[in-house]
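Re: the multi-chain job from yesterday

Posting the exact lines I submitted so nobody has to dig through the queue logs.
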Amino acid sequence: MSEANENKEYTWINPLGVWGAKGGNYEVTSNQVSDPSDVWRKNTGYKVPTAKVGRLKHYHIWDNHNEKLWKRLRWWPTRRHLLHVKGIYNRKTLNAEKKILDRRPIYWIICMVILFIGPLLFPSSMQSSLLTAGATFGIFAAINVCWTLIIGTASIFSLATYAVVGVAAFLTSWLSINFGLPWFSLPLIGAAIGFGMGGLIALPALRLDGFYYALLTLGLNELCRVYFTTSQEFGSASGGLYGADSYLSESWSPAVQSHASYYIALMILIGALVLFRFVNGKRLGRILRMAPEKREAFAEACGVDYKRARIQIFILTSAALGLIGGLYTAHFRGVAFSIFSFDTVLLGLAMLTIGGIGKAEGAILGTLVVVFLDRVMIEWGPMRHFLIGALMLASVLWLNNGYFGIKQQFNAWRDKKRGEWRSTRTEKGGEALPEEATEIDDKDDLYFRRYDKMQRDYLKTLITPEIIAEHMAKPLGQHSEALERVLLYFRRAKMEDKYALHRVGPDGPFKIIAFSGVRGVSPRVVEDKEYPTEEAGYHGVFMRRVHDLLES
Amino acid sequence: MDLTFLITNAVIVACIYGLIAVAVSITWSSLGLINLGYGFVFSFAGYGAYLVSERISEHPVLVIAAAILSGALAGILICLVVFIPLHDKQNFTTRGMIATLAISLIGSQSLLMYFGPRAKALPELFGFWKVEIGGLVLTSDKIGIVVCSVIMLVGVVLWMRSSRRGLEIRAMMMNPHAASIVGIGIRSTGIYVMAMTGAMAGLAAALLSQTYYVSPFGGLTPLIKGVSIALCGGLGSVQGAVIAAIILGFTEAATSRFLGGQYVLITQFLVIISILIIRPRGISGLLDKAREQ
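And the result, structure tokens for all chains:
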């Protein structure tokens, strides 16, 4: 019973009373009938607070240049596009427009341009240290891109990457020092060494999986470190092996040398990226995308020989790593033992995890961050390794897949939150939940339930002590508008469980029964109470219905 | 004489590295966490013992207790920082391993910043006496190492077998999901496991400090050896770890006797690789089936 109605009492006068109609009250206190459409508006209104601005477009939509609709940049001589462009129609203006679906090539080009003009942007006071750090960055980023191929694409969790590079670098510098090999032969020899080592390390990968293999390769790395540091030929006394031939001529001025080493390191990085693109984006990479971890059996059942593909990638990448090892020797004129140290593996892993394992851009960003902290911020001392460790820990603890996974993770989180908010706003519209509504074939039924609920909501506001008193006084005949509306609703109820009066004796008393709603099934007796007169029985039925209405 | 010397050395090496291997093994099988932070736990415990011996007393019981306690503390720290936030996230195994590596990096750098790069020596814990049994001379530290680690191992195994917490840990080893359904708290069990395994690594640190010094990065070799032994014995199996520790200890002793010290790692890894190629799950790695994470 709503309070608004309780106060609006008025005296209802039976319009038929003028003609002396029988039954019904002639004058009775009743309550004002409110507008039924209020309930309708309340139920059908859209109550979700909506912001004025719609969804922001975070991408640019290009004009379609009319007749140049199909003119696109293509890789000569194929028909492949440089950019993944989709033609769309503007919903409002119906103009043809273009949308770039994959903008990563543009970002890659911008970043590469920045790296290439980098030396012009470096402050002159830090020019030399930044150029040296840049050269280190290029080489380490190339190694990490290859490592990403192994860990990400081939999903072989190998920690022996730096061991392969280091062995190739040590052997090539030894050969170069002892046999005077020229610098251009070093990468080739390094590649051969890497190929051999890759084959050797790949053998256990056929039998071992996941972490057994990771720990084994970690041990292998340690083994290389101990072997090279203790052996006499590889300069156990001097902390490394130096004096190999280099492509950087010593006759050049230091500035030219550092610039040359910077750009050569960038070229090595670009070479590694090309390798990444051609392995990860072509047949081998696609085969392995079919067989991610835990779904190998399915891929195998589909006829994908994922083991073979993994080993192929591993050996190919190891050869590339060996080549980088040879270039490393030719670049730095030798190699230090620190390439085998556990710290190098740790820092390498930090580089991969900060950016996100499995993505070339992740490996490069991570390398940039770690090399910057490690090589440029030297005055910070042990603090910088502390910081690298903290970054690594933070990215592992809070990010599912490193920096470049943030967007995806944020979208997933936002969708989850959206769902939660939506579920707090959703109310039961009518009597059917959205889930069950999809399973009810007769949609009329849904609409009926919804309408019925609104009607009951409205009628509940009309039930007041006045109309109950009015009904008790005269159950039959003309009634006030409020009572009449309630009674009409009651009369229209379904036969199932509809109340009726059962005359027990020839002149009463009366009992309330309820129809079964099924033909041939007799009604049930609702209560034992007996009503002496028919009017008292009518009122008893009315009270039961009022009770049911208020309960529903 | 040679043979007995070899065997005693093998047993001692096996005892120390076996402690870490069993710790790695238990952590992996019950929590599914590959803890590469034991290097940090090891150095942390060593420094804890060093601080006690320097500031409070050089009594061996106190020093060993300090090492065990600080090891357990470091273990709990790793559990709180890595296991509890990460254990229900996706890609837990990889992320957990990398996070423990990060802890080890941060921890070693903090120890380096606080204590400086100079290695510290712990006092002699077991005195200087010798026992001669049938022509075999056993020094006090050898006997002390073996006795301490055997007591610790037996204690841990008995505790795992007979106590309520041990039952919980064993239930987690069998099936972590079912264990959590029947009301075993994954997080609280994680804390027990990490405290216990940290204590084992701490004891190993105190024992190994009889031979080597305590330094910020000194935990690396024991970690790698412990992990390889655990791997070779089969992650998750205590017996396997003990067997592997004996085999590898023997290899180490034999190699340094006949070939020279620098070949130790090479022969060890050849042995490990051959064992793993024959049995990819290690010597008795059966539990690995239960934990497919």
